[in-house]
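Weekly modeling sync, notes
Attendees: AB, CL, MP (scribe)

Item 1: holo prediction request
CL wants a bound-state model with adenosine monophosphate before deciding which constructs to order. AB pointed out that an apo prediction alone won't tell us much about the pocket. Agreed to run with the ligand included and paste results into these notes for async review.

Input as submitted:
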Amino acid sequence: MKHTVLLLGSGGRECALAWKLSQSANLEKLYIAPGNGGTDRYGENVALSPLDFEAIKKFVVSHGVTMVLVGNEDPLVAGIYDYFADDAVLAKVPVIGPSKAGAQLEGSKDFAKGFMERHGIPTARYLSVDATTVENGKAFLRTLSAPYVLKADGLAAGKGVLIVPTLDEADRVLDEMLGGMFGSSSSRVVIEEFLSGIECSVFVLTDGTSYKVLPVAKDYKRIGEGDTGLNTGGMGAVSPVSFADEEFMAKVDSRIIRPTLDGLRRENITYRGFIFLGLINVGGEPMVIEYNVRMGDPETEVVMLRLNADLVDLLEGVATGTLADRAMAIDPRYAVTVMLVSGGYPGSYEKGKLISGLAEPTRSIVFHAGTRRTDEGIVTAGGRVLAVSSYGDDKASALATSFDTISHIAFDGAYHRRDIGFDLK
Ligand code: AMP
Ligand code: GLY
């Protein structure tokens, strides 16, 4: 069946999803809400907030939308899946993403840790505390060795994890978090053992029964080269990941993916969508750092490059419980994305800078993240501006293509890292 798809979100991830959806033989029409200055090359932007469910309902009904793909976590944690499922008119329109209960895997770190404990999924030792049990938290900190990991339970725009070097500081940060450092998101705090290793992102698409594992990726979060400086939303990504070989992925499958899906079923949690496993390789053994209930950004920008499948067909398989029958292969080429960001990011930065060079022919696929279309042209509209994504036979050639493309693009204050993938073979 041909689908009219509504994609929710406005970042580089959504631009990459829109690019892939637009290539589908099963796409009738694509809307992106709200989208950005680049998503409108692949579909029609509509000025709707992903959190305004009433407005989304009106749009879905009036425009004959047959499928909703949720890019970011907020609408999922707020219950968009259940809002559709419980509505007489909307119930026939599938939402790709978990139910509100399933979204707790990302929406509550306390829930996620409890879930992993219940299902024997390898993860760091932890204790979850609130204002009434803060002394237990301080006692637990004394059973760990430095550094100390403290996580706000709820969503905190990616800023809710603090890693502190000393016990004194851990005690103080714990008090501050419980005192409202992240508002109500940190009224509960998960204290964790620090795990040492290299991280990767594994993406699983499931219809609740069967599943497919998408290309493995690794993102680079720090602003500076060599992974130094402040955390950002992501400065680049690569796929594949050399250490995520067959042996490692077999462990991920048997110890993490299958127990996660079995656990969801046993707890009667409806989950039809993407599961993002943030993993760490501890001496060859995969452990879960976190779950997310959506695709990663900027990982999606490389994963979509390597996904040889009709994405609408895959998503229809998710919605109808027939994912096992849908074809999917992985492109053997290497893919990288290098993020061009605004000067000053992740601190304060200016917006509205005119971007030149976007019309030049390029061998890269330039996904827009924080951009806006104006009468003067495309201008910057966020910290992360463009995700310059390229294929190559190896990492070096893929990176060289992205750098060549970047050399033709300019805006006032543009910055990018030149070492994406530096820690991998
Ligand atoms: P999260 O928001 O859960 O992804 O955490 C942000 C980052 O903190 C992760 O990507 C890891 O680099 C780091 N992190 C979180 N938990 C741990 C842990 N238990 N041990 C070491 N690093 C961690
Ligand atoms: N790249 C990490 C994330 O999307 O959360």
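Recorded for review: The CA atoms of residues 278 and 289 lie 5 Å apart.
Action items: CL to compare against the apo run; MP to circulate these notes.
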